[in-house]
Amino acid sequence: MLAKPQQLFNLSWPERTYGEDSLYPFEGVGALEWNRILPPIPVDARPGFTAADFWLRMSVASGLSLEVYVATSQRPWRPGITPDATILGTGSFANTDLTGLAIAESGAEDVELWVRGVASATLATTATYGAPNTRSAVGGSYLFTAGGSTLNLSAATWNLNTSANNLASGGHYVRFEDASGEPALPSRTIVSVPTATTLVIAPPLTERQATIAVELDRFSIYRLPVYILSGFGAVTVARTT
Question: pLDDT, tens digit, for every residue of 37-88?
């Protein structure tokens, strides 16, 4: 006998802004590190189901990619996991299906949604976000403060957090490079622009990494995907009893 599928949950958010509010209800930046973007969603299925089909509806910035992972008790998130899907952005809303993911046979489950941005090779636009997008473009002093979390460049003219167009909300990361332009240290996501000459990055560089970065005296700023989530849901996979 075939047990019918059961809807587990169906969440939705608006796909447009309203009035003077220019922000979408669920908009974010795909950082270089995995981030859980929703609190655990408790679901209660009929006992006996061992898998579910999930769906996402998202808009991802055109030409940029976002990795997604759905975590359950049977497939928890952990470092080094393989993404369930990599969404190549078009700038429009589209559905992504994630089928046959394991869930607890007991019926009680907590679902989590994780995302991670894919590093791009597209430099930040200085006309939009301020300059520079490469260290070689300006002079001035270059150093790190606040335990390796704040990059200071005295000649920079970056747009501040108060601007609608800033490197943090617009989705960007810093790549620390050697003399040939190759990555020399792990890249870092820009999370804040408190002044025109400072960038807050995450996670912070270690003291040794910060020293190497200044000695190399070279970095570039590249784009990360901005995404808008408008739907997330799941239904159990039919089973034979």
Answer: 988 999 988 888 899 999 999 999 999 999 999 999 999 999 999 999 999 9
Quote the pTM value.
0.91
Name residue 10's amino acid. Answer: N
Residue-range definition of the domain harbouring residue 96: 2-118+226-240
**What does the pLDDT read at residue 240?**
52
d(CA 93, CA 115): 17
Domain identity same for 100 and 132: no
The DSSP letter of residue 33 is S
- One domain for residues 8 and 26: yes
CB 194 within 8 Å of CB 156: no
Both tokens assigned to 237 = 């996979």
Respond yes or no on whether the N-terminal peptide bond of residue 47 is cis (omega within 30° of 0): no
Same domain, 67 and 150: no
